[in-house]
Amino acid sequence: MGSFRHWDRNIESLSARFSVSAPDLPGFGDAPDAPADGDAEFFAQALARHLDARNSTTRRVHVAGFSFGGVIGAHFAARLPERVERLTLIGPGGFGPAPRGRFDLRRQTEAGDGEIIKHNLLQTMLHAPEAADAKAIEIQQLNLARTRFDSRGISTRPSLLENLTPIKCPTQILWGEYDALAYPSVAERMTRCREANPSLKLTTVPNSGHWAQYENPDFVNREIIRFHLGAHAIQ
């Protein structure tokens, strides 16, 4: 369940240094629907069409993707290397299915049940109770209401490592220190990524869960800017 709103605390800061486009992928938010059997290639081509519409066909772009978006970003960079200058992945999926029943998720009895949304956010997306604030709940309510595609069929396929291996552009991966979705651990996933592509820049985002760019936006924004523009960009 997602949309460009996952980047609410990042777009303004990144826009000070980059020309930022934050599209919803098909089946999410404001985007058109996606076919139920849509695969990673379908979404990567949708991203390519979005860039074409922005007259980006002749220049390389910087790509950042979160969670399911990280799976698509890696697929895009592996298949269309001529279009990607640098790549950032935050808490990417694509490691295969994890054991069921790891989380105490509660079913909503009504669409606007904020307490249940907060509980579920703290199970899977956020670490600190104060991070599940009114804005996070609002974003999740909108995402729940507007998601029309089940991304789990793509996110739980073991595709990330095979996509990381051929990627030639500089790539960073950020993981929240307490990312509950990183099974069996953040450290284990980092090790597997490093084995697939030794050139990766791997960084742990302190005091944050899966939705690291919301829970610790200053750290994430700084790391993205440093990586994509160079350390001299931060004064």
What this model shows, in words?
By secondary structure, the protein is α/β, with parallel strands linked by helices. 39% of the residues lie in helices and 10% in strands. The protein has a single domain (4-233), classed as 3-Layer(aba) Sandwich (Rossmann fold). It has a four-stranded parallel sheet, sandwiched between helices. The chain starts with 10 loop residues before the first helix and ends in a 6-residue tail after the last helix. The model has no long low-confidence stretch (mean pLDDT 94).
Rg to the nearest angstrom? 17 Å
* Largest sheet features: 4 strands, parallel
Helix content: 25-40%
Name of the CATH architecture: 3-Layer(aba) Sandwich
According to CATH, the fold-level topology is: Rossmann fold
List the secondary-structure elements in sequence, H or E.
Answer: HHEHEHHHHEHEHH
The residue-averaged pLDDT reads: 94
- Measured distance between first and last alpha carbons: 36 Å
> Total helix count?
10
Q: Beta-strand percentage? A: 5-15%
Q: How many domains comprise the coordinates? A: 1
Instruction: Output the CATH homologous superfamily.
Output: Alpha/Beta hydrolase fold, catalytic domain
- Shape verdict: globular
